[in-house]
Input
Amino acid sequence: MTSLFLSVMPIIILIWMMTKKNGLPSHIALPITALMVGLLQLFYFNTDFTLISANIIAGILSAITPISIVAGAILLNRMIYLSGSEDIIRRWLEGISKNQVAQLMIIGWAFAFMIEGASGFGTPAAIAAPILVGLGFNPLKVAMLALVMNSVPVSFGAVGTPTWFGFSNLGLDDATLLETGKITALIHFVAAFIIPPMALRFIVSWSEIRKNYLFVLISTLSCTVPYFLLAQWNYEFPALVGGAIGLILSVVVARFGLGLATAEQQVAKTAVAGEAAALGDAVSMNMAPVSSQSATSGVTKQSQPDNQPDNQPVSSGQILKAMTPTILLIAILIVTRIKQLGIKSMLTDGTELFTVSFGPLGDFSLSKALILKLSHILGTDVTWAYKTLYVPALIPFLLVVLISIPLFKLQGNIVKQMFSETASRIKMPFIALVGALIMVKLMMTGGENSPIMTTGQAFSDLMGTSWQYVGAYLGALGAFFSGSATVSNLTFGAIQQTIAMNVGLPQTTILALQSVGGAMGNMVCINNIIAVSTILGIANKEGYIIKRTVIPMIAYGIVAAIMSTVI
Output
């Protein structure tokens, strides 16, 4: 009991520090929590100091992955804004429909759904959220919407990585893995009936959602129906294909205004909502300047002949040019993520080129795919690796930016501004991510006796055969800690499998609950919250966001629990 109490205490204190009135920002709260876990490992769990130190080093190095992705996303966002492309995209989307619900569903739901299917790694929020802010939506509210929306496709994100790789250490045959994917897709399909409306509520009123609900339903089903059907025979492409089909259908349906409130109703609602939002923002928001509508004074935006009055329609040529960076991004993600094309294997080739000993620090190696790896850190089994060409930082973000500079004929001062603004935005998030990843590494240190395993096992002992009602929340806990549904599945998959066997529950159902839990945990994952907040320029609102996104996450878990009883 003492071990359980001490295992969960740091997390409880972390949540309290970040969600209390005048809560601490993540770059302070997370390092404090990491220090607490380290002291507990040293003085209570009697973990070897060398092993603790090795995990601290690995945690610091591991922060390079998320911060490089965030930096790449910010850089692309700055380029799109400063080149004038964001204005063109905004006017085009407004031309499809001025209805706020339609815009939110097309970009925040269908477009992000497709990007998640191709890449994962928090890329959907990084790309979709700035576009929505460019349309005039409040950054803080957009961040919460993006986090909640990016849950349904996650189990099959990055071409199915959380499923086929997340459960790779469980010894499952392909038929069992496919069955797990089918159940996972079914639970997500049902949950999708409530998740988009709950996400939309962060920005628009329930009244406006009801008036446009037919469109919300059509847009939702246009993604989830092909997603569910494809999952019956494949666990790699459901999110990618479902999102692509859903995006096309959502745009077409919005163009015809099917299921949307009339223009007169929308204008009236928008005016009222705008006044309320302006009043609320003036009272409650404490945010740094953000990408487009609230750009800092001193931002130099390149003069473009494409920049025309908002009421001037944009040509197809202008749209194509403005969308070229996004199209390139999607194309590169798809080409590099589908293993059948052969490029993925090239970018992840672990064949070593050379190895250099750094003495007690460990052995450093470089692979053919430029994978950086530090093994046997401080003489332990702790290892760190960075997939230079596969992590979506250099490819596609930096690559697309470098291609776009001559495409848009960006001046030198604009390019310099893009990089300087990116560097200034990632300083505090880097500290927060270092704290988060050290905490995660230390929570997982100790094997079966680690704090994270102790917590998971206690939950299963408490629930027994009723475990299916809470199984998804263990997956969410893993995503909260690690920032990844894949890591959650790798960490807790074995526990879930053991519990299923011990208490006599269907293995595929419990593993599906784990997978769904890892996906819904994205809503409250600190890493994701820091990432999207940084990209949108939101300061010190992590606790505020968690308190609100945890509600749809709990609702998601309830749906999963109910579905587990009828499958």
In short: Confidence is low (pLDDT under 50) at residues 268-299, 303-307. The longest strand covers residues 352-357. The longest helix spans residues 542-566.
